[in-house]
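Field log, afternoon session.

UNIT: design team B
ACTIVITY: writing a sequence onto a fixed backbone
BACKBONE:
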């Protein structure tokens, strides 16, 4: 008498007995690749009020979301803390990759180094401009470990420094951020 309460079962007549369900027979479907149709629209600015709205091609968005722009992971280690809200109400603007102390950090894609410096927050860090409004930041490196200088062109996978524990940290790791048009975004969407 699944689905009936004890009082309901007490007054149920034989005609009111619960029905039994028979699952549909198992059907093997042929393996076919999934496909997605995305209409191609030219990007065209549309003026409205004092602001402008730019329509971005859905095809470009679909490709960027599928493949990302970056070519390699900056470190070959597991992610300990992701992008987004933390339990304490703080927003984490990147991902924390738990590589061993001194492990190499590599450029996620080709680009031009825009910043090599050290401060109290990110500690020793490097920022790279990859063009098309995309930039990456690599933080908490060992002091003095960057192997690049500002203005230098780097290739994807090129070593740019070593994992450390400088700045505001409790343990050594690589803090990695992705910027799109100056705003931080979830790095997972941009990594291969």
């Amino acid at each position: 008498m699944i689905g009936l309460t004890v009082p309901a079962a007490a007054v149920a007549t034989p005609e009111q007995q619960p029905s039994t369900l028979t699952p549909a027979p198992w059907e093997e479907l042929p393996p076919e690749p999934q496909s997605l149709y995305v209409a191609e629209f030219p990007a065209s600015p549309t003026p409205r009020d004092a602001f402008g709205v730019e329509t971005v091609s859905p095809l470009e968005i679909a490709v960027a979301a599928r493949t990302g722009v970056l070519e390699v992971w900056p470190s070959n280690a597991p992610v300990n803390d992701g992008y987004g809200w933390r339990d304490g109400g703080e927003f984490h603007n990147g991902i924390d990759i738990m590589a061993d102390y001194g492990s190499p950090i590599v450029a996620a894609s080709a680009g031009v180094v825009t910043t090599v410096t050290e401060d109290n927050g990110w500690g020793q860090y490097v920022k790279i401009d990859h063009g098309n409004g995309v930039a990456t930041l690599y933080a908490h490196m060992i002091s003095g470990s960057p192997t690049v200088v500002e203005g230098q062109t780097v290739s994807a996978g090129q070593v740019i420094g070593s994992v450390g524990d400088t700045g505001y940290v409790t343990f050594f790791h690589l803090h990695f951020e992705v910027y799109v048009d100056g705003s931080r975004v979830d790095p997972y969407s941009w990594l291969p």
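LOG NOTE: Residues 46-53, 55-66 have pLDDT under 50 and may be disordered.
NEXT ACTIVITY: expression trials, pending approval
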